[in-house]
Amino acid sequence: MIDFISQQHIYIALARLSFPPINFLQFPQTEKEDMDLLHLFFCSLPLLSLFYMIYKNLDKKMHQNCYILDYECYMPTDDRKLSTKFSGEVIMRNKNLGLDEYKFLLNAIVNSGIGEETYAPRMVFEGREACPTVHHGIVEADEFFHDSIDKLMKRTNFSPSEIDVLVVNISMFAAVPSLSSRIINYYNMREDIKVYNFSGMGCSASLVSINVVENIFKTRKNTLALVLTSESLSSSWYNGNERSMILANCLFRTGGCAMILTNKTSLKHRAMFKLKSLVRTHHGGNDESFNCCVQKEDDKGFVGFYLGKNLPSAATRAFIENLQNIAPKILPLRELIRFTLLQYATKMQQKWSKSASSARPQINFKTGVDHFCLHTGGKAVIDAIRQSLNLSEFDVEPARMTLHRFGNTSASSLWYVLAYMDAKKRLKKGDRVFMVSFGAGFKCNSCLWEVMRDLEGKNVWENFIHNYPTKNLNNPFLEKFGWLRNADADTVSLKDYQIPD
Predict the structure, then answer these.
(1) Beta 67-73 vs 293-297: how paired, if at all?
(2) Which of the residues 197, 282, 283, 459 is marked catalytic?
(3) Beta-bridge partner residues of 333
């Protein structure tokens, strides 16, 4: 015990020799040193404040990024495929249609670019399209919700209770409680979840939802958002004979997409896409644009979706303005300078020479974009965008094939087009994808995504992507119903006509 105490005293003594004790009351030793330290402290305050502000801004910016972790496009069961034969039966079940309406619908469907494997709501196969109920709309929505959300949650290993923000957009159907409330109830989500339920936004609704999530991410860190985008055909099926309203029955098909977005930096390595820029254009203040797409009743009281003849001109105006706003955000400076100089030179040439060409210079979007994800509003829509942006057939192939296989699935159509590119394994890390959508209002919304990693191509297209692109886009309606073009109402009876298999 004495030896142990002696050793302790020796160690303490050695330590005191190496590190003499500091008397803090004597530091600093002079008044000059004291003043120098005080001066240094006050001089460094602005610098420390600057560093702190830079850190806060960088941290804030890092948490404001909007990433898509994963998405799931909905594919209904095979018993809901709308074949040519069954489509003909549905059309002929409408007793308000005559030979002239049949001819109109034949031309519309033949030129639509839609194939035989698209999907319709269940109530059509039950023969209830003439008298749809609220229940039919709820069944259609629930089938999409449960199938897509379950698959998405399983693949991402997230639980519904982890979702912080829920955004649902289904334009043509409103239920009480809301569709978002049905999802919260079914999946037993958190009580403090932030919920947004959109209606009436039309085919451009999914990018509106993305924009809402993007803005939420600017104020909330470490957030998970679930976005659901679809349309309800059950509640908007038209049973009258107005040509501008029966057209919607030919073009729209069942579909939907569920996606998980986040601003968590810890999940950045799992992200599929990063949002680079998003621009929304709304021409609702213009009466012509506002009235070109409207849900209304016809003279006989049948409710449907009216598509006016002025729709192409309204879409063109919104599209041009949207491109003017987003181009400076996504294109390189050299292309903007080239286009500006060329535009100026053309104007000067036209001013001084009457024989100068009236052709306008075109901006090259391919200088800042690798892939084009276009709304599948119809064959004419795809052709118009292709011409406007000077795109190749390869660029518009995903939109054409999506229109042929799934039809116009309204707000969710963009994600089927994106899934086609993914399944074809065209999307590589660093690629930039440009999305364009149109919707009632009239609206044109567009955005640019950056691919965050090479994608595996496992999605709704996976099992039949090898069949695409198909070269044969001929619509079988012409083969089965082409005789209608030369039919005469006085000599042809449609009551006893049997549709060939």
Answers:
(1) unpaired
(2) 282
(3) none
Residue-wise DSSP of 98-126: -HHHHHHHHHHHHTTT--S--B--HHHHT
Rounded CA separation 349/199 (Å): 49
Does residue 195 carry a pLDDT above 50?
Answer: yes
Give the distance, in angstroms, between the CA of residue 191 and the centroid of all CA atoms in the same chain: 27
CA angle 473, 255, 391 (to 5 degrees): 45
Distances (CA, A) of 240 to 94, 95, 236, 300: 8, 9, 12, 8
Spatial separation of the C-alpha atoms in residues 256 and 191, rounded to whole Å = 26
The neighbour count for residue 440, using CB atoms within 10 Å, is: 25
> Mean pLDDT for the chain?
85
Q: What is the pTM of this model?
A: 0.85
Contact 186, 167 (CB under 8 A): no
- Which residue out of 197, 249, 322, 408 is catalytically annotated? 408
282 catalytically annotated: yes
Catalytic site residue from 136, 249, 293, 371? 371
Is 9 among the residues known to form the active site?
no
404 is annotated as an active-site residue: yes
Q: What DSSP line would sit under 430-453, residue for residue?
A: T-EEEEEEEETTTEEEEEEEEE-S
DSSP string, 241-306: --HHHHHHHHHB---EEEEEEE--GGGGGG-SEEEEEEEEEE-TTSHHHHTTEEEEE-TTS-EEEE
Query: What is the CA 42 to chain-centroid distance, rounded?
Result: 52
Is 375 a known active-site residue?
Answer: yes
Task: Give me the mean pLDDT over the 53-76 stretch.
Answer: 80
Place of tokens 């820029």: 277
Residues 166 and 465: their CA atoms lie apart, in Å, by 31
Indicate which residue of 66, 203, 293, 373 is catalytic: 203
Inter-residue contact 394 to 369 (CB < 8 Å): no
Distance CA 167, CA 216 (A): 11
Which pair of tokens denotes residue 373? 């994800």
**Percentage of the chain exceeding pLDDT 70:** 83
Q: Which residue would you say has higher pLDDT here, 83 or 449?
A: 449
To the query of whether residue 203 is one of the catalytic residues in this protein, the response is yes
The helix (run of H) or strand (run of E) holding residue 401 is helix 393-406
Q: Which listed residue (404, 445, 459, 475) is catalytic? A: 404
d(CA 419, CA 423): 6
| Tokens describing residue 227 | 């976005």
Q: Is 414 left (phi over 0), alpha (psi -120 to 50) or beta?
A: alpha
Catalytic residue among 197, 375, 444, 447: 375
Average confidence (pLDDT) over 208-226: 94
39 a catalytic residue: no
Strand ranges, E, within 178-223: 194-198
